[in-house]
């Protein structure tokens, strides 16, 4: 171990006198800044101060040695407490440091941890008592410290017999409790040495000629009425009914089923026992009691030791309720599942500092209800150095571009052309004025048209055409060029589509089974590689500020393009093994024993027969790596992943979002990934957004597409803004219908009445229905005149009185001057619904349907009408219960006020 010698230490400032000591002792280990460990480190330095003779030196040397021993953290603390080390004594410095670290203690939290502490499995009594003393030092118990530690020993020891003995002792003090606990532990260890413990052996019945069976402990079958019979659900005696069982609402921690305790659960996991064929029908089965798991590690959680089980298959780290006692839990928005896809009861999560040897990380710990063992995730195991990757492969990139130069040049062209088929008797669509384009984009549009002309994608049109579409100009992410999109909505309605099956993801995954080597070819501007026949080209005419043009190649956006292109590519590559084609993407896969280059040779040979060129787009991975290394934000995150994340959250708000997701960030093959998704640098995000929304999908689909490959912090908001601001989507977005508003409910019957006419069996009927009671009145009309309607209304009003409001549609019988005069004479308000909008008179329309169905089915319409009026509605009352005659709060309305 290195010793501290100020005479040889070149880092000591010049001019300071060396520390005079009687012995050469090593300095205490540097303080790591945790307030819980300050008292222990302070006591160790005090011993060093006395043994080394430092206490006899001047205060300035003692203060300097103290701060030097603490390490770099001392400078940060001095800046916070504003202490001038050159003007303070050693004792004043200690008092200031004590006040600083004591201010960071949380007494309530410390006491909660103390009161929840129990002896852990495999933990010795001495270790348990030492930990209780450590916890009690943080609780400020003062004179009650020894008594509370004694009580905690009595309650927290694992030996139930020992706990009972301690509880029965009169005048039990702390020293006596410690002595008895040590004696009990020594007796138990001696008993285990003299009489080693064996696992419980029971007998289980096995059918004859059985070679493997899952064995369970046998169930005892005593008499149901015996006094020693225990309940199967709670395990208590005497036997009682299930309705009075205390476990009827409990949830088992073993099988997660309701109605019994885990101590009596019959779903105990056992191991499969292989046996040879025996003539005897019985065999000994061993119920597994447990074994020591070597995959554990002793970590420190915020300075407190705790044992974690290393689980490299776990996605997150989990702890039980005990370790979370007194902590402020954050809500958990994730659904965690355990073995067997069983949902876990997550109480919340908290951030903690985990330390193993000299490594410290910040980790989110999820608190699981009923969790016994703390589990450390695979990511945390790797970051703490508990597990390491022993073997890694660096893939070699073959130089395909040099070996197959004919596949990577220019825009390809298929030999066979495509003819667009239209439905019969289709009305052509044509525009005569070009759509307006922003003036700053005109030069870029002109340059893009020139490029398309040079690539033989379009041709100028000078003759008259029946079809002519508009264009939509979309700036590209590089801000130097644009994409010209044709709005061929009208043409798509007339195009006859061919049906061609597309393979599903499950089918493709099955075909990839066993493959280890993969290559991907991407046909650049795939649709543009398929030429159109001359008769179909004029159908794709589009109008620009620079004239009219038509497509020589298959245009993007036409409804039949995906099926046609997929069918043509499948025909080209169908005879090649190990090739999967999806539109313009070609995936080449091979088994480990074969060579991927051989498949590329086969692809090249087949392509030469049917293709002039099959170009691939430039490799984006190298571009992304370059952009990640040059982007300041992403570059900093790459450094964190390679050198370790800081213990505290960075002050930069942009880096804080990465810091919160640090467990998901990693670098593979020099590419920064978020799980399996590429972290997109800042200057490439607009390009990615345009790619995600290239097909004008909605917000949900664009987000789902992004989740398959790309990520950056808060990616959902830019996607939503992109879709919301898209001019094409805004123009074609369906108009949302206004919600229907219910009419006001009248306070008493026959106040608001709906009216309508309907025909049935060659007769015309007048229907009135009360809004309050749903009471219907039906009359047959001899003539469809206002006078006939008025006569029927007078007969109804003579029975029920005059309503306050009468609602109808705008039929001629209700809109005449004669009917208006009738409303004035009888002093009621006549309200009509909106023309051609029957929903406004929904009460009458609904009643018409009900009465029509009633009269169609009834043999006696009067009996049917009587039964309807007596039948309770959804509110529990029949129309007869709410009609005028059973409501004495309203008088019969007549013409006299």
Kindly describe this structure.
- It comes from Elysia marginata.
- It is built from 29 helices and 27 strands.
- The N terminus is likely disordered.
- Among the domains are: 88 residues, no CATH class; 88 residues, Cathepsin D, subunit A, domain 1 (Beta Barrel), CATH 2.40.70.10; 210 residues, HIV Type 1 Reverse Transcriptase, Chain A, domain 1 (Roll), CATH 3.10.10; 99 residues, Endonuclease III, domain 1 (Orthogonal Bundle); 135 residues, Nucleotidyltransferase, domain 5.
- Helix 6 crosses helix 7, helix 7 packs across helix 8 and helix 7 runs parallel beside helix 9.
- The chain is α+β, with helices and mostly antiparallel strands and 897 residues long.
The major sheet is characterized as: 6 strands, mixed
Structural class label: alpha+beta
- Please list the strands of the largest sheet in the order they lie side by side: 7-9-8-5-6-10
Low-pLDDT sequence parts: 1-19, 197-227, 268-292, 606-618
